[in-house]
Design a protein that fits this description.
Elements: H1 5-26, E1 33-36, E2 46-51, E3 77-82, E4 85-94, H2 95-100, H3 106-126, H4 131-134, E5 139-141, H5 148-160, E6 169-172, H6 174-182, H7 196-200, E7 206-207, E8 210-214, E9 225-230, E10 235-239, H8 246-251, E11 254-259, E12 266-274, E13 279-292, E14 298-303
Helix pairs in contact: 1-3
Length: 305
Amino acid sequence: MPFNVADDLKIHTILEGAMEAFKRIILPLRLFSTKFENVPLKGTDTVHVPYYPLATSASKDFDDDAGYEAEEDGDIETRPVKIDKRKYQSMAIKSRTWNRMPMIDFEKLGRNKGRKLAEDVIKDIFSLVKAADFGVPVVNVAPDEFDFLEVLEASKAGNDLMWPETGRGMVLNNGFDHYLKADPQARFAGNSGDTRVWRDASLGARVGGFDYERAPILPDNGENLAGFICFPSAVLVGQAPIEPEPSVREQLTAYEIYTDPDSGLTLEYRAWGDPGKDTGKRVIECNYGFGIGEKEALRRFTKAA
């Protein structure tokens, strides 16, 4: 069913607003190995996520007879991740509302739906971060005791695990993030002209040798999880849209795949009408999957009981 220009604009306004909010919440995933597809999967339900493994082959001794022995693709691996998660946010607009409230803020509507969708997706992915797979915490303190010295302890843990210096990430919940900002040692950068803590209440993109992200919706997973340090190979995340079956698509008034040009993140939009209820229905959807990569590539922070 064709759309007029006004309807097309409303669709893209909703999607742009949803993506803006979605990618802001989902940012901590950049610390993991990810592969975001913007085309529907055909004949498979998996995405092959590339990652750089922590383990590396031992150096070889040169053999005059055999010469050099090179391992193909020894420094990068891929692992299949099944796209088996479908989360969506729905909107229902009655014809009466559509006609009597012509100034509906579609951008705000999209932002609200995108934010909540991202929160639920990232909580689902972070549900993996448990002691059973990633061991005892490297930090276990009350939130008001978390300071820059704990970050240094985490850095030492990364060193002891022989993590590469580059690519290390750290994620903190709101409580640990707050008390780290309050620690004078974490604000020492102000002495060299960096005033982000004072100006924006932000620790910046790097803290103590880690790429840093705050995760305000980090689940505690029943284990008082408050944060973690990681190398990207710890968790593998894939995303790909699921195209509607042809007879289903015929019943839709719109189906759009919207991809963020910067991150590659993709959201899907479906719209259809219910004449019996005089209601238009819209869905913003995220299709994704995730799995554990290397268990030695993540260590947890917990809140002391």
